[in-house]
Amino acid sequence: MTSSQTKYRLGLLSLVVSIGLVAVKFYAYHLTRSQAVLTDALESIINVATSGFALYSLYLSSLPKDENHPYGHGKIENLSLGFEGGLIFMAGAFILYSASGHFLHPHPVARPDWGVALLASTAVVNLAVGLLLVRNGKRLKSVALVGDGQHLYIDALTSIVSSGALVLVAATGIVRFDSGAALLLGGFILVNGGRMLRRAVSGLMDETDTAVVAEVIAELQVQRRASWIDVHNLRVQRYGANLHIDCHMQMPYYFTLEQVHTELHDIEELIRARFAVEVEMFVHADPCTFAACSLCLMPACPVRQFPLRHEVTWTVQNAVKNERHHLGQSA
């Protein structure tokens, strides 16, 4: 089974589970008339909508590149995460508004025992499916699956809190525990929706993934050859699970075109072998200048003008800059 098929099946599982749990939670609300249970049920409706959109995004992201999408369709997963975060944020705002009114004007809660039993069962299912989605989403580098799984975590937490509120109402007779829990959940849902929106915008705006950049630079440093005099202007973009990497590599100016091509091909293959996803890499070759002699590791260079002074160690701080390294820069 391919990674795309695995992601699609997991997305379908999330959608089916979400639909079933919404029915259970609204039945629990029908029995209890609890504001906390209604909050949980409303949040689960968002699960259905977002799971459906996530499923579509997983299908779309698996499509091959075409003339209109030369980098593939992977960005749709970030849009899916943003859609999910936006709906969660709006649901949190509505829940806070509704719960505030019920806190000021509480009403009785009926049959809390049934409510606790039903919500506890949905929490167990959500935790299990959420764990499955997050674990596989990280393995498959799918932000849509990870986001969907984290949403199920949130849903499970709301069910646990709602169950706790029903237990307190049954034990103490204080009805405001119910609406108080709804207020707490509304704030929690609002904050998490905002965080998901933030992650989605970061992906759509190609915010630097420092961990991936550091991994690429570390691999280049480990595999470094004397002819790779300098690397700079290194950039990494993520399209769904796939990576697009480009950088400038300074090489001896007297290398033939064939030698340069061989070196660039080797660099690309080394980086592709490092990652378990599809990597598209472009390396721009720059000819060296005599200003680089004091940093150049080439043995027996026929045109060297200055002796080697020190080697510059490539790091996230210096390899991403759009400037060549020079003498005086810390190693």
Automatic annotation (TrEMBL):
<keyword id="KW-0472">Membrane</keyword>
<protein>
    <submittedName>
        <fullName>Cation diffusion facilitator family transporter</fullName>
    </submittedName>
</protein>
<dbReference type="InterPro" id="IPR027470">
    <property type="entry name" value="Cation_efflux_CTD"/>
</dbReference>
<feature type="transmembrane region" description="Helical">
    <location>
        <begin position="12"/>
        <end position="29"/>
    </location>
</feature>
<dbReference type="Pfam" id="PF01545">
    <property type="entry name" value="Cation_efflux"/>
</dbReference>
<feature type="domain" description="Cation efflux protein cytoplasmic">
    <location>
        <begin position="229"/>
        <end position="288"/>
    </location>
</feature>
<comment type="similarity">
    <text>Belongs to the cation diffusion facilitator (CDF) transporter (TC 2.A.4) family.</text>
</comment>
<feature type="domain" description="Cation efflux protein transmembrane">
    <location>
        <begin position="12"/>
        <end position="205"/>
    </location>
</feature>
<keyword id="KW-0813">Transport</keyword>
<dbReference type="InterPro" id="IPR027469">
    <property type="entry name" value="Cation_efflux_TMD_sf"/>
</dbReference>
<feature type="transmembrane region" description="Helical">
    <location>
        <begin position="114"/>
        <end position="134"/>
    </location>
</feature>
<dbReference type="InterPro" id="IPR002524">
    <property type="entry name" value="Cation_efflux"/>
</dbReference>
<keyword id="KW-0812">Transmembrane</keyword>
<dbReference type="InterPro" id="IPR050291">
    <property type="entry name" value="CDF_Transporter"/>
</dbReference>
<feature type="transmembrane region" description="Helical">
    <location>
        <begin position="81"/>
        <end position="99"/>
    </location>
</feature>
<dbReference type="InterPro" id="IPR036837">
    <property type="entry name" value="Cation_efflux_CTD_sf"/>
</dbReference>
<feature type="transmembrane region" description="Helical">
    <location>
        <begin position="41"/>
        <end position="60"/>
    </location>
</feature>
<dbReference type="InterPro" id="IPR058533">
    <property type="entry name" value="Cation_efflux_TM"/>
</dbReference>
<feature type="transmembrane region" description="Helical">
    <location>
        <begin position="154"/>
        <end position="174"/>
    </location>
</feature>
<keyword id="KW-1133">Transmembrane helix</keyword>
<dbReference type="Pfam" id="PF16916">
    <property type="entry name" value="ZT_dimer"/>
</dbReference>
